[in-house]
Design goal:
Chain lengths: 491, 379
């Protein structure tokens, strides 16, 4: 595969430059070349007018390039100082290096407003602060150019604002920043110049001031896209899912759900907003029959779960008409080592439609999968291909097809569009609205505030395991939700 | 449908056929160098080995007899492996399984032959399964790692057998720790007898009816793992425990299930040795077959067909190696073990040693193929 084709990008010193494109457009490959992970087959990199030979991350650091990865490269048990020092210890004995680092960090923190407790263990810090540590690491190594890969994916809106403030301070000091993102809003908010990539090529390089979100989206996808989801008013019916005072602890004994009460009615979408890790995953697990709550009551489609004589497990909960599109499709939603056909019966492997008394009839599995693939436009429509061979969007379609195929009444959806490109997001959003209009009760968990805002009829915000507040979609604003997500409370 | 995603994006024939073959050649090449150093001709050695394994009908008998043990123990390893478990305890499970077979033959021989055989099979399976159940339970419910516990259970099995044979099952008035001979009808028919019934002359070898049962077990394992919902669940647990939980499949239950089946299959090795060959209980009849089964299964990619092929290869190495040591005085019995060890090392531990050498070539082939397909589509 040619991941980058004849790509030329010029970044002006002391500017914030955005690089935007769908998944697989070649953004990450390009940055990996810059940072020395991959080597380009042809072409060159020039820094300050001189050709730079970058063959390894070490070369890149020496050339003044720093990278903040999407998934942090931090050693959690070590302190901030130790993490910063890692790989730049400055000699066999730590003492001098530590003193030097302490002074330098003090100065950096002052200059850029990057307040961090340098003696705190990294693992105990909030995600936003961990990201600051990553930035400090790069600056400590003398980075003049900072590359940030999807930096706001894990941040609250407030943390993202803080990050942008830091980036602005860095720019003012003459550092250059390259921001890789798929969020159009961020590009519009802080960049001066934006490069749009599609299928490994640069399709546009424009001044941010001269463009608009709609225009950029069109450039990214190569056709006109609707950024707004069209939907009519909800017509809620009877309650299909009701949770009262749910409490749950995780495997290490930490309380993950605190007194959570929710209802979802037929024909409406309840959005669960919140920064990742505030109990949303545990909530989904309790609702779908994986995790037993410590206390509380749960009723789904007229069946009482987790109490009484009947055993509750994921299999039985499916049978009473609940389908679940899990948050992490690679970890839970399918088995990457299985063929698409095999993945398409995950959770339904015992269905009478596929089974004889002993044998699991593979031909029936394959033909059912084939039909689903055509209905949901999975490409390539080949049930015998390994699940890992499909793109993220098509893997998601395989899961969506499987979960919707039995016409469930209640639908749990976690992060439906994580890592998908705009085209796939559009089609999945449309399908969710369509299900709502067909009278399904839908609970949607997403860390993408835009997604919650555009799909939900009611929005509940989770913070630290509890429902911090619930608002009707028409009253919801980003500021209001952001405050709830940060645990500030609205009343 | 594919067995496991060990393909690294390479075609299946390359991973399952080409790489093992190259590894095998490499193992023989290194063995050849050793033989050269000893002052013998590697070519002659290979000829002697192949002739010793396949050159005459008696050789076939011995080769297939060894292969029978490997089929059972490798199938045992493979089914646990599909559930993500490394069952290193085939040796002990086979040993205790053999005890189950032996007890049935010693104490239930009032039963007629046609009832005693199934009873002995069930006895061997139950004993082997029970011996695997304890580590399985500890893994499933307490998180004790099955690699550690099954190794320990091998030692326990060995000492239990010594105790039983020295103190309990020993034939009264005898010095050596072994049971009395089984009754005439409490033995599996030997291959030469069965061939005799068909009017075919076959030399006297240890090969017996257990071989046919081994082939049947390979078929049963294939059906179970790939053509039943239980096999599907077992493989899901092995490939992705989180997805299993999501699907309502209990990992703990499947771990126990896989290990119990694994132990039962390992116990069938005891059937071959105890009821088929020795026709009495004795010490150390497992002779390392349980361990070699791991290498056989790995070489056969944990698939019954691969296991049959790899079992035949290892059977040939055992039998041909013995003949080789006999024919070439300078190639000792120990050197034959070295050759076996090299094969195990190259195909088992160094599985992907030569992958980097082939990858560019294979990828180029694939690109050419997909380019051709794309061109065909455009027309």
């Amino acid at each position: 595969m040619q991941a980058n084709r004849d790509v030329s990008v010029e970044v002006v010193k002391g500017s914030i430059h955005g690089i935007i494109g769908e998944n697989g457009a070649g953004k990450s490959t390009l940055m990996s070349i810059l940072y020395g992970f991959y080597r380009a087959d042809s072409g060159s990199v020039e820094i300050d007018g001189r050709t730079a030979a970058i063959h390894s991350p070490g070369d890149a650091i020496a050339a003044g390039i720093g990278m903040v990865h999407q998934h942090f490269m931090l050693v959690e048990p070590l302190t901030v100082l130790e993490n910063v020092l890692l790989g730049a210890e400055g000699g066999p004995l730590l003492r001098d290096g530590v003193r030097q680092a302490r002074d330098d960090l003090d100065r950096l923190e002052r200059d850029y407003g990057l307040e961090v407790d340098v003696d705190a263990a990294v693992g105990g810090l909030p995600v936003g602060i961990q990201q600051r540590v990553e930035i400090l690491k790069a600056l400590y190594r003398g980075a003049e150019t900072l590359i940030l890969d999807e930096p706001t994916g894990v941040l609250t809106p407030q943390e993202a604002t803080d990050l942008f403030r830091i980036l602005a301070a860095l720019k003012k000091q003459g550092r250059t920043i390259i921001l890789i993102t798929h969020k159009l809003r961020e590009i519009m908010a802080i960049t001066e110049q934006v490069t749009v990539m599609r299928r490994g090529s640069v399709v546009a390089d424009v001044r941010t001031a001269d463009t608009s979100r709609e225009h950029l989206a069109e450039l990214m996808v190569g056709r006109k896209v609707l950024l707004r989801v069209d939907k009519g008013a909800a017509q809620p019916g009877e309650v299909l899912l009701e949770a009262r005072n749910l409490e749950a602890v995780d495997d290490t004994g930490v309380r993950r759900l605190k007194d959570v009460s929710l209802t979802v009615r037929r024909g409406e979408i309840l959005g669960i907003a919140g920064v990742a890790g505030n109990g949303q995953s545990e909530l989904l697990e309790v609702l779908c029959g994986i995790r037993k709550p410590a206390s509380g009551e749960l009723e789904v489609n007229g069946h009482v779960l987790w109490s009484g004589q009947e055993r509750t497990d994921a299999r039985r909960v499916r049978r009473i008409g609940l389908a679940h599109i899990p948050e992490d499709r690679q970890r839970m939603g399918l088995v990457t080592a299985f063929t698409a056909g095999e993945s398409s019966i995950l959770g339904y492997q015992g269905d009478a439609a596929f089974n004889g008394p002993i044998l699991l009839h593979r031909r029936r599995v394959v033909s059912a999968c084939q039909r689903q693939m055509h209905e949901y436009d999975v490409r390539p429509p080949d049930p015998l291909l390994l699940s890992s061979g499909f793109s993220g969007g098509n893997q998601q379609k395989i899961i969506v097809a499987r979960e919707l195929d039995r016409d469930p009444e209640v639908l749990l959806i976690g992060q439906p569009t994580r890592g998908l490109d705009i085209g796939a997001i559009e089609s999945i959003h449309r399908r969710i609205i369509e299900l709502r209009d067909r009278g399904k009760a839908i609970l949607l968990v997403s860390v993408e505030l835009d997604e919650i805002l555009s799909l939900s009829d009611r929005i509940a915000v989770m913070f630290d395991g509890a429902v911090a507040g619930e608002v009707a979609a028409e009253d919801a604003t980003e500021q209001l939700l952001g405050g709830l997500m940060a645990g500030l409370g609205n009343n | 449908m594919a067995t496991a995603d060990a393909g690294f994006g390479l075609p299946r024939w390359a991973v399952n056929g080409l790489l093992p073959l190259v590894n095998l050649v490499a193992a023989f090449a290194v063995s050849g160098i050793v033989i050269l150093i000893l002052g013998e001709s590697p070519v002659e050695a290979v000829v002697a080995l192949v002739r010793g394994a396949f050159g005459f009908r008696e050789a076939w008998g011995y080769t297939l007899y060894y292969a029978t043990n490997f089929i059972f123990t490798a199938l045992a390893f493979s089914i646990a492996a599909h559930c993500g478990l490394f069952n290193i305890g085939g040796e002990g499970q086979g040993y205790i399984g053999g005890l189950g077979v032996g007890l049935a033959c010693l104490y239930l021989d009032v039963l007629p032959f046609f009832l005693l055989v199934p009873v002995a099979i069930v006895g061997g399976a139950l004993f082997g399964a029970a011996w695997a159940w304890v580590p399985a339970y500890l893994q499933a419910r307490r998180g004790s790692h099955v690699v550690i516990t099954t190794i320990m259970f091998n030692f326990i099995a060995a000492t239990v057998m010594v105790y039983l044979l020295v103190n309990v099952l020993i034939e009264p008035g005898q010095m050596s720790p072994q049971s009395r001979d089984f009754a005439e009808h409490a033995r599996l028919p030997a291959m030469h007898d069965m061939m005799g019934w068909l009017g075919i002359d076959f030399p006297r070898t240890p090969l017996n009816a257990a071989f046919i049962w081994a082939l049947a077990c390979a078929g049963l394992v294939w059906v179970y793992v790939w053509h039943t919902r239980w096999g599907y669940e077992l493989r899901t647990v092995g490939a992705n425990p989180d997805a299993a939980v999501y699907a309502g499949i209990s990992p703990a239950r499947n771990i126990v299930r896989a290990m119990v089946i694994s132990g039962a299959l390992a116990g069938m090795m005891g059937l071959n040795e105890v009821m088929g060959v020795n026709q009495r209980l004795l010490l150390n009849f497992t002779a390392g077959y349980g361990f070699v089964g791991i290498a056989v299964s790995l070489m056969g990619r944990n698939h019954p067909v691969g296991i049959l092929v790899a079992s035949l290869l290892f059977g040939a190495l055992y039998q041909g190696g013995a003949e080789l040591a006999f024919e070439m005085p300078r190639v000792s019995r120990e050197l034959v073990v070295v050759i076996q060890g090299l094969v195990i090392m190259f195909v088992g531990a160094l599985e992907f040693l030569f992958l980097p050498a082939f990858r560019p070539w294979l990828q180029k082939r694939r690109q050419a193929a997909s380019a051709a397909a794309a061109a065909a589509e455009q027309e």
